[in-house]
Amino acid sequence: MSSNSNPESMTHTAEVISQEETSLNPQSGASNADPHTDLIQFENFVKEFEELKNIEDKLHFAVGYMRQCLEHREGPFFREFWESRKLCLPLFKETIPRIIKSQLWKDYTDLTREGRRLKSLLDEETAYAVEQIDLAISSIEEDVSKWEANMGEISDGGVEETLPEVKTLKGHIDQYLKTQRELNLLNTFAARVHAMRKELLKQEMRVRQKNQFFNQLSSLGDRIFPPRRDLIKAQSELFLKDVSFFVERYFSPETFSAEEARRSVFFYRDEIKSLQAFAKLLTLNTHTFTSTREQLSNCWDMLKGIEKELKKEMNELKSISHDNANLVRQKMQEFSEKLAETPLDPADALRQLQEIAYFMREVDLVRDDVRRLKEELEYLKAPFQSQQEQEEKDRKKKVEEVESKRKEAIEQLKQRIRHLREAIDSLDIATLRQNWEDARAELGTLKANKAEKQPLETEMKMVRDLIADKEKQAVLSLSGEDLKTLESLEEILSQRKTRRTEIKTQVEDLRRIVGGSGLDFEKAMTLSGQLAEERERLENVDEGISEIEQKIRNLKNATLH
Questions:
Q1: Distance between CA atoms of 86 and 110, rounded to whole angstroms?
Q2: pTM more than 0.85
């Protein structure tokens, strides 16, 4: 229902309809509700009928009137038809020419049969109409009863989608929605009741039956209109209070500020428009709708001058923005020309375009110009960003390939160590040691983090210990002479390693002394000679250690083979 309709007018309409019901002659129905414009009133017909002196003229006049009553475009007028028929019947007993009497009697009987046939059809239509009206009223009663029993479970009916968002009403929006949902339903009930009243006024039926239907509709009205009127009153008072609060807060002489209005003119304007739209969607009484509309119109008038000033300033700003936008486009044009002469690296091109974007932020631009310039700038950036993204994809792909190969190498080394461990019993010590040394060298060059290397190193240590255990068992199986020789060689090896440590310490001491200052020439030459001798002795010791180690290995290998 439109908010500018008078909610109280529907109650007034109901009262008018009730008055029409009491003054209505149900027997005549709609046919007597309006005066006959093209059919003689029955009283006038009787008057003219009695004024005629000739019997033949009376019969012609009465039969013609009967025909008019049946053929009227608004429907048959049965009361007038039967009354005129009563007046006509005695005249056939009078003396008139036989041929004329026969023709008039034929017309009279034909009209009588047609009248009875139409009356039968009308009775059937009336019975059907009564049945349908009874069903319709029962349906309204059932819906009203359901509403009364489930008032808290009314669906929103799309109210939330139609009501605009208004900050001023935010605190009471749930109450507005709840009340309007109920009012929408009550308005529907009221419209259905009014429609049924109008339909009853048109129907031909017995007075008792019609009065019974009117009484049912009246009872329904008593259940619908009072709560509807109370809801409209509560809704109107709340809306009037909220609008008055908005006006007092921002537009009263004590609170209105031209400077504040300039800063918030768009908020005020949108809020006023939203409140006006909100009022049209709510069901309000006439006083509230008119009062709030006048208050909001006055607020709108107060903003007109300020809005004109802002529009003038906006036009000036648009002019400045237009010039600045041309400067930005000029830079874009220069970039495009430079790009046509010399291809640019994507990173360099994007850097130059970013500088243009920084320049955009430094100049004054309106929102539309900013949006358009950003679109143009993005168009220039697009190919370089795509190229950069492709390069990044290629780089990630290479990294993934390298990572895949690295993980594959780790897995291969892991398998190699596992196989070496499984082959401890089947391979000789020399082969085992060679394979272990190869695996250790590969582990040293392997690109792996600490977490990945740790389990491999643990496996390597376990394999090394297993090889050492096998060597120990091999040594224990040597003959007495070979074992004695091995022990002698190991003792000599230990002594020479000790000697090598002593010589290395001596060499380091001489190197520090010779490298220092404060020595005379002769002393320096003497120390240099000693350093050379010690280095020679260290080389000889290293060679001796290598020979002994080789002999030990040969002895062990010979025993194992």
A1: 15
A2: no
